[in-house]
Design a protein that fits this description.
Layout (H helix, E strand, L loop, with lengths): L32 H11 L2 H8 L3 H10 L5 H12 L13 H20 L14 H12 L12 H21 L4 H28 L8 H36 L1 H5 L6 H9 L2 H19 L1 H9 L5 H9 L10 H4 L8 H17 L3 H8 L3 H5 L7
C-alpha cells in the first residue's frame, strides 16, 4: 500500500477539558474544507473504503497504519468524517462540543491503540480494469452485441440497438440520480429518435419514386446518409461515456481516478454528493460529449453535398428535449446547429438550466417516459 498525501483539516479541540497540548491537534482551519474529503475518500485504498463503509473503523485505521500512515490527527479525521458524511469534510467549529468530544474519543480509543498494534497483512488491491473491459461490461449491461451494432445498416435494422442505448442511460440515472448526464442523454434521445424516424420516412417515400422522379435517388442517399451519421454519433457517445458510467456504478470513483482517459475531476465532483459539484461534474461530461465526441460527426453533416439544406432544416426544426426549453433558433437566431459554438450556447444558456431546474420527481418522470413518446413530445403531465 503506497504512502500518499491525503490532506484534511484537523478539528477544533481547544475547548475539550483534560487534553494536553499534544492531544489538541493542529487547531481549526477552513482551508479547502469542503473540497478535500471527497478527494481523500477517492484516494483511500479499496480495503480501507470497504472497512469504513461497513463500520469497521478499527480495521480501517490498522490498514492505514500498516500502509505507513502514522499521523494520529489525520487518522482520526478519516474515521470521524466517515461517521459524519453530512459535514462533507469540513472542520469541527468552535462550539460543536459534542463533535469535538467524539473526535477526541476516536483518537484515544481507536487510533492510538492501532498505532501500537502489530501490522495488518494487506493484500494489494487489483489494478484498475482497462477501458476495453469496461466498454465490454457496458455493452453487456445494455444488452448490445457488438457485432450487431452496424450503423451503416440504417435505422430500420438498428432500431432495437438505438432503443437499448437510451434504456441503458435511463437505468443508470434510476440507480443514481447524481448521474445527471445519463438522464439528460435519455431525454435528448427523444430528439435523435425523432430525427431518425423522419429520415426513415423520407427514405421509404423516395425509394418508390426511383426511376420515375429524377430527385428520388438523391433524397434516398441524403436520408440514408443522415441516418448513418446520427447512428455513428450515438455509438461514439456510448463508447466514450458509457464505460465511464459503468465503472463508476460498478467500482466507484477510485476506479475512474486510476484509469487513463477518464476526466477524474468531473467524477470526483459527481461522487462528492454536493449538489453544486454534482452539476459541475455532469456539465463537464456534457461539454466533453458536445465538443470532443460529436463535433466531428456534425462536420460530416455539413460536408454532405446538399447545399447545406440539411443543417439549415435541422437548425430551424430543433426543439428542446426538455419541457419549457426554447427552440434552437429562438436562442441562437440564424445559428447553425452543426456548429459547436452555436449548439453549446443553446445548451448552456437554455437547455441545461431548464433540465437542472426540474424538480427531482419531474426529472424522474421524464427520464422514464418511453422513447417514442419523447420523440413525439408526448410528455407526461406534471
Amino acid at each position: 500500500m503506497a504512502d500518499r498525501s491525503f490532506p484534511l483539516t484537523s478539528p477544533f479541540a481547544a475547548d475539550i477539558p483534560g487534553l494536553s497540548d499534544g492531544d489538541r491537534g493542529t487547531g481549526f482551519s477552513v482551508e479547502r474544507e469542503l473540497e478535500d474529503w471527497a478527494d481523500t475518500v477517492a484516494r483511500l485504498p479499496s480495503l480501507v473504503r470497504v472497512a469504513l463503509k461497513s463500520g469497521n473503523t478499527t480495521l480501517a485505521v490498522r490498514l492505514l497504519v500498516s500502509g505507513g500512515r502514522r499521523d494520529d490527527n489525520w487518522l482520526t479525521d478519516v474515521v470521524f468524517h466517515a461517521r459524519h458524511p453530512e459535514l462533507r469534510g469540513r472542520a469541527i467549529r468552535s462550539g460543536e462540543r459534542a463533535l469535538s468530544r467524539e473526535w477526541a474519543t476516536i483518537r484515544m480509543t481507536i487510533v492510538r491503540p492501532a498505532l501500537q498494534a502489530p501490522p495488518v497483512a494487506v493484500t494489494p488491491a487489483p489494478p484498475p480494469r482497462p477501458v476495453s473491459e469496461w466498454r465490454r461490461l457496458a455493452l453487456a449491461a445494455a444488452g448490445i452485441v457488438p457485432a450487431e451494432w452496424k450503423p451503416d445498416d440504417g435505422f430500420e435494422r438498428q432500431r432495437p440497438i438505438v432503443e437499448r442505448v437510451y434504456a441503458y442511460y435511463a437505468g443508470l440515472f434510476n440507480r443514481d440520480e447524481n448521474l445527471l448526464w445519463a438522464g439528460m442523454a435519455k431525454l435528448a434521445g427523444g430528439a435523435v429518435y425523432h430525427g431518425l424516424m423522419v429520415a426513415q420516412q423520407q427514405f421509404d417515400t423516395a425509394k418508390w419514386g426511383i426511376g420515375q422522379d429524377p430527385g428520388a435517388g438523391l433524397i434516398v442517399n441524403y436520408a440514408h446518409g443522415l441516418q448513418v451519421v446520427l447512428l455513428d454519433t450515438q455509438r461514439a457517445i456510448f463508447e466514450d461515456l458509457a464505460w465511464q458510467h459503468q465503472a463508476f456504478a460498478q467500482a466507484g470513483v477510485a476506479e475512474l481516478v486510476a484509469t487513463a482517459g477518464a476526466p477524474a475531476g468531473a467524477w470526483r465532483d459527481i461522487a462528492s454528493g454536493d449538489p453544486g459539484r454534482v452539476r459541475r461534474g455532469n456539465r463537464e461530461l456534457l461539454l466533453r460529449e458536445q465538443k470532443t465526441v460529436v463535433a466531428p460527426f456534425y462536420g460530416r453533416i455539413r460536408d454532405l453535398k446538399d447545399f447545406d439544406l440539411i443543417p439549415d432544416r435541422m437548425s430551424r426544426e430543433a426543439l428542446s428535449p426538455v419541457p419549457g426549453g426554447k427552440p434552437f433558433r429562438e436562442v441562437v437566431p440564424d445559428g447553425d446547429l452543426t456548429v459547436f459554438e452555436h449548439r453549446w450556447k443553446w445548451i448552456e444558456t437554455d437547455m441545461l438550466p431548464a433540465y437542472e431546474g426540474l424538480a427531482p420527481q419531474r426529472r424522474r418522470q421524464l427520464v422514464n417516459t418511453p422513447l417514442a413518446d419523447l420523440a413525439a413530445r408526448r410528455w407526461p403531465p406534471g
